[in-house]
Each structure stands twice: as structure tokens, then as C-alpha cells.
Design goal:
The protein has a five-stranded mixed sheet with strand order 1-5-4-3-2. By secondary structure, it is α+β, with helices and mostly antiparallel strands. The protein has helices at about 10-20, 25-40, 85-90; strands at about 5, 50, 60, 65-75, 80-85. It has one domain: YaeB-like fold (2-Layer Sandwich). Strand 2 and strand 3 (about 60) form a beta hairpin.
Length: about 90
């Protein structure tokens, strides 16, 4: 099953700022998005549900330091990225 990534304007701006600040992570970031679209449950993404004030959202890893938070809507096979950044910025 292929999932559809749905990008909001707000996320697109956040992602552009993230890539501008971390150009060395561009390839890893794009690879993470491709894998997320193909199989959000792939072990290397380390998909997990968040709790507390971010309950209802999930997170995937770009690498050990950087994450993407997202809404994972399984019924519609849609994935809506919310934020991207390091652990402290995203959580």
C-alpha cells in the first residue's frame, strides 16, 4: 500500500527553514519522506506515537538527532507532516 504525503503551507515553510539551516541533511530528509510514503512502518523510521501535549501525533526519525512529527491517518492512507527539527524543537 502506498501512502500519500499531504503538505500544508505551514509545514512547507518549516521544512524550507530546516533545509536552509541544515543543508547537509537534505538527502537524509528526502529519503525519510520517500520511505514514509512507501512504508511508514519501516523499522528505520522508528515510528512511534507521542503523548502529553502532542498526543494524537506520531514521530519518525531522520537520524538520531532530528525528527519529523506527523499526523498519521491510516483510513485515508494520508500522512500529514506537522513539524521537522531536532528533538527539542519538535517536542
Amino acid at each position: 500500500m502506498t501512502y500519500a504525503l499531504v503538505f500544508t503551507e505551514q509545514y512547507t515553510r518549516r521544512a524550507a527553514r530546516f533545509i536552509k539551516r541544515h543543508p547537509e541533511l537534505r538527502q537524509q530528509y528526502l529519503k525519510t519522506l520517500q520511505l514514509l510514503e512507501a512504508n511508514p512502518f519501516h523499522p528505520s523510521l522508528r515510528l512511534h506515537a507521542l503523548s502529553g501535549r502532542l498526543a494524537g501525533l506520531h514521530s519518525v526519525s531522520i537520524n538520531l538527532s532530528y525528527r519529523i512529527t506527523l499526523e498519521l491517518i491510516i483510513q485515508g492512507a494520508e500522512i500529514i507532516p506537522i513539524n521537522v527539527g531536532d528533538h527539542d524543537a519538535v517536542y
